[in-house]
Design a protein that fits this description.
By secondary structure, the protein is mainly beta. About 15% of the residues lie in helices and about 35% in strands. It has three domains: about 55-100 and about 110-320, Metallo-beta-lactamase, Chain A, CATH 3.60.15.10; about 335-415, Immunoglobulins (Immunoglobulin-like, Sandwich), CATH 2.60.40.10; about 420-495, Immunoglobulin-like. Helix 6 runs parallel beside helix 7 (about 250-255).
């Protein structure tokens, strides 16, 4: 289980083909190292390294442990690297040490998602000190920001800044493609610095990663604007350190990440990640890893050939299958059949027939009104905590262990009942008279009828002075039981 404590996807299609084939540049570097001779790259190529860093020859996405902030790097199989955000001020040495431990001595470019200090505070520090790592170019949203941290950033990278546009692509040494899917509100007019965050989809073979700074999912909902261009991803660097105002349910359903990495400081004053966000991630079936786990440790995603990827943090490690298209099993399960909904008081219960698959069905994704609501392993689920007379439509999709998702089941609609209760039930023997009083969660607008031993007595009258519906009726004999039924589905009974 990942340190984040949220359910893992089963390990599938783990690379077992032995050493991954290396290209001529890797081979040349090994020869140079063995010969202890000086080596030079061909024009336009990154300098060859004379020592191989651990993990070279595979795609790597590293989320550094920088406390309450964010910084991540993408490293190609041939060792080219780019940085996404630069951590809070004072973390430059941490970044330089971690990058150099992975063989990185130069960054082709850096992307600054936005200008808050916890994201760009140490970008300038990466280029400073005896172990400085130069950055060829930086990409950001353009414009300016009135803070000392921004001024330091702008001064350090004067003449090297480039303003991104939505739809723009950046190539990392011809191996990894970075597509800008959001920037400057993505067409929405806003001054919220978080909402202005640059969002980028990093793509290598069958592995896609979304990095979007502190992008917002409400007030304003920019996540909805980037979702179509983003599409399904394998890894999601969770927006805004897991804040409740990001990672909304519809967005998670659209990008369907296998893994979510939360860059967050232990015991931070913001309460990140918020419980609501963790619940939404869990409902979407996302395996969560956190940099504050175990007191703090970086999280590294690696892949040899794009047909599987592995997440490692300290001694913890788990492998995952990418979305269909990267090889292996591409057959989707059959759609769930016989979906049925049963309405109750403030809840709707769903049940369906199991799907079949040529490998194995892993789970079912339940959608309410088109948005992903839950991920479950069984063939039933209860939508609880709803309101009175609340109407919803539901459909379900099955997902197999390779991540293939079935077509949608048929859609069913249901409306919740309102609650009702009998507060007074009395029998006057002398007068042979039954008195009933009842309450309803939709009072006084609901209509309530009374019954005695199943026979209709009539409509109950709303008594504002009593705060209840009332019926007084003479009967031939005391009934065994009395009951009430509302026009919104609520019912209650009481027996003598």
């Amino acid at each position: 289980m990942p340190p984040g404590g949220v359910r893992l996807h089963p390990a599938e299609r783990v690379y077992a083909g032995g050493m991954h084939p290396m290209d001529s540049r890797w081979t040349a570097a090994v020869v140079c190292s063995l010969a202890l001779a000086g080596c030079y790259a061909a024009p336009g190529e990154a300098p060859l390294q004379t020592a191989q860093a651990a993990g070279e020859g595979q795609f790597r996405f590293v989320v550094f442990d920088v406390g309450q902030g964010s910084a991540a790097a993408v490293i190609t199989p041939n060792g080219c690297a780019a940085l996404f955000d630069g951590a809070p001020t004072g973390r430059g040495a941490t970044l330089r040490t971690a990058l150099r431990a992975r063989g990185v001595t130069r960054l082709e470019f850096a992307v600054a998602s936005h200008y808050h200090a916890d994201h760009v505070g140490s970008l300038d520090e990466v280029e400073q000190g005896a172990d400085a790592i130069p950055i060829t170019a930086v990409y950001d949203r353009g414009g300016s920001y009135t803070t000392a941290t921004y001024n330091e950033y702008a001064t350090q990278f004067a003449g090297r800044r480039n303003t991104v546009t939505v739809g723009q692509t950046l190539s990392l040494c011809g191996e990894v493609t970075v597509t800008i899917v959001g920037a400057n509100g993505t067409g929405l007019s806003t001054t919220d610095e978080n909402a202005l965050s640059v969002a980028a989809r990093v793509s290598w073979r069958g592995v896609d990663v979304l990095v979007g700074g502190d992008l917002t999912g409400e007030g304003p909902n920019v996540e909805a604007l980037i979702a179509p261009a983003t599409g399904p991803v394998e890894v999601y660097l969770v927006h805004h350190h897991g804040s409740r105002t990001s990672s909304n349910a519809a967005f998670l359903g659209a990008i369907a990440p296998r893994v979510g990495v939360i860059s967050v400081g232990a015991n931070n004053s913001y309460g990140h990640p918020h419980a609501e966000t963790l619940e939404r991630l869990a409902a979407a079936g996302v395996a969560v890893w956190r940099t504050d786990a175990g007191g703090g440790a970086l999280v590294e995603v690696t892949s040899l050939d794009g047909t599987s990827f592995t997440v490692t943090q300290g001694a913890a490690s788990a492998s995952y299958a990418p979305h269909p298209g990267g090889g292996g099993d591409t057959n989707a399960p059959t759609a769930p059949a016989d979906l049925a909904a049963t309405a109750g008081v403030r809840r709707i219960d769903l049940a369906w027939a199991a799907s079949t698959d040529d490998v194995a069905v892993q789970d079912y994704r339940v959608y309410r009104d088109g948005a992903l609501r839950a991920t479950v392993t069984g063939t039933a689920w209860a939508d609880t905590g709803l309101g009175d007379s609340e109407a919803h439509g539901y459909h379900v999709r099955a997902r197999d262990t390779s991540g293939n998702e079935s077509a949608a089941s048929s859609t069913v609609n249901a409306t919740t009942f309102c609650g009702a209760a009998i507060t007074t039930r009395s029998w006057n023997t002398r007068r042979s008279e039954l008195t009933l009083r009842a309450t309803c969660t939709l009072q006084p607008s609901a209509a309530v009828s009374a019954y005695a031993d199943g026979a209709l007595l009539g409509a109950m009258t709303w008594r504002a002075s009593r705060g209840a519906y009332e019926l007084v009726r003479r009967l031939p004999a005391r009934p065994a039981c009395a009951s009430v039924l509302t026009n919104c589905g609520g019912e209650a009974s009481s027996c003598f």
